[in-house]
Write a structure and sequence with these properties.
Pfam families: TY-Chap1 (PF22551), TY-Chap3 (PF22552). By secondary structure, the protein is an alpha+beta fold. It has helices at residues 9-20, 29-47, 63-66, 103-112, 136-150, 185-201, 213-225, 274-286, 312-337; strands spanning 56-61, 74-79, 84-89, 127-132, 159-164, 180-181, 240-244, 247-254, 259-268, 291-295, 298-306, 340-341. The longest helix is centred in the last third of the chain and has 26 residues, at 312-337.
Length: 363
């Protein structure tokens, strides 16, 4: 990805050396996922006591993102009178054949504190749990473990949530970690207004001039994902997470040198081999921008966007390429070389594709 004006070759080479010294492999991937779930549980525990009577929190595993077909795994929490809280979780009665829980999973639901379907008043065919606002922390932990361990949500970013009243009117609530708020028309309009304001406020012909690089990046990603800047999924490392089917793409802003790194851990726990390195080299040569490489036991895809003379269109192209690339390659490379997709827990084994299958438009 070139900067807006040409850089001397020597300066470009020096910048490349700096980039190579700070790879995203320094991230603890398993730690990032664990931290994200802990953050989600803490946020949910903090939100529940603040909600008014009659409020509902709906949490749903995105079936498209998680690859669970027509199955809808969800948990609904409702705030009742006198601080009582009811939670209902989907059981096999609501799940299509092929996606139902086995006996061990049902037993684990009960062990987590859920009552079997029909036991708690109003639960019908769902698992039920009754508590009160002082028990919000324990309930939040139970819900997080249910989504992660039973329903197979690989990361809170695959959970879509909505907070509303009994009339289905939205209720303003703090973000639930990196879970995705179901965007309303108002959210989309705010995202568009944020970028429009940036464009109007630009100086010297640069539509985002006058804003810090981090703010520029957030406004661009907000516009692309159609949510407000405040609702972007930003983890403890400051990385913005973007769902990409079965993969996750991160956008990281670096200060020295000014750089926006768009990267994705395609596969983890992989055994490096000569065949793997050859494959990654061949794929990299066919990529319009960016590269694929293996470091330690992880295959990475990375597209750097220079922060000097930052251009929004450069970042938009990098994100578009990376989201398509990551979602396609994690399946294909896993089928050929094994290892784990970054969000591989609960995934079904990939189907071997015909040898004449061609990678999509990104390669």
């Amino acid at each position: 990805m070139a900067a807006a004006n040409d850089q001397p070759a020597k300066q470009a080479d020096q910048m490349s050396e700096h980039i190579l010294l700070d790879e995203p492999t320094t991230s603890d991937l398993r730690g990032k996922v664990t931290d994200a779930w802990n953050e989600f549980a803490r946020a949910l525990a903090g939100v529940l006591p603040s909600l008014p009577e009659g409020a509902y929190v709906e949490l749903t595993l995105d079936p498209t993102a998680a690859g669970v077909g027509e199955a809808v795994y969800s948990v609904t929490i409702s705030v009742k009178e006198d601080g009582h809280v009811l939670a209902f979780a989907v059981s096999n009665a609501q799940l299509p054949e092929g996606y139902r829980m086995d006996r061990a999973a049902v037993a684990e639901m009960v062990a987590l504190g859920w009552s079997p379907p029909g036991v708690v008043e109003g639960s019908g065919g769902q698992f039920g749990l009754r508590t009160n606002t002082p028990g919000a922390s324990r309930l939040a932990t139970t819900v997080a473990r249910t989504l992660r361990d039973i329903y197979g949500a690989p990361h809170p970013a695959f959970v879509v949530y909505l907070v509303h009243d009994s009339e289905d009117e939205p209720i303003d609530a703090p973000p639930l970690g990196t879970a995705r708020h179901e965007p309303s028309i108002g959210d989309i309009e705010r995202a568009e207004l944020d970028l429009e304001e940036a464009l109007i406020s630009g100086k010297d012909g640069d539509p985002l001039a006058g804003f810090e690089l981090e703010d520029q990046v957030k406004m661009v990603i907000s516009s692309m994902t159609k949510i407000s800047v405040e609702q972007l999924q930003v983890d403890a490392d400051g990385d913005i997470g973007i769902r990409a089917g079965s993969a996750m793409v991160f956008v990281r802003v670096r200060d020295n040198p000014p750089l926006v790194d768009v990267f994705s851990p395609i596969l983890t726990e992989i055994e490096p081999s000569e065949q793997l390195y050859v494959k990654l080299s061949e794929l990299t040569n066919r990529m319009p921008i960016g590269r694929l490489y293996c470091a330690n036991d992880t295959v990475w895809a990375s597209i750097p966007v220079f922060g000097r003379n930052f251009q929004a269109t450069h970042l938009m192209l990098a994100v578009q390429v990376m989201t398509g690339l990551a979602d396609e390659l994690d399946d294909r490379l896993h089928g050929e070389f094994g290892g784990k997709r970054f969000f591989g827990e609960g995934d079904k084994p990939p189907v071997k594709e015909p040898e004449d299958h061609r990678t999509g438009m990104y390669l």
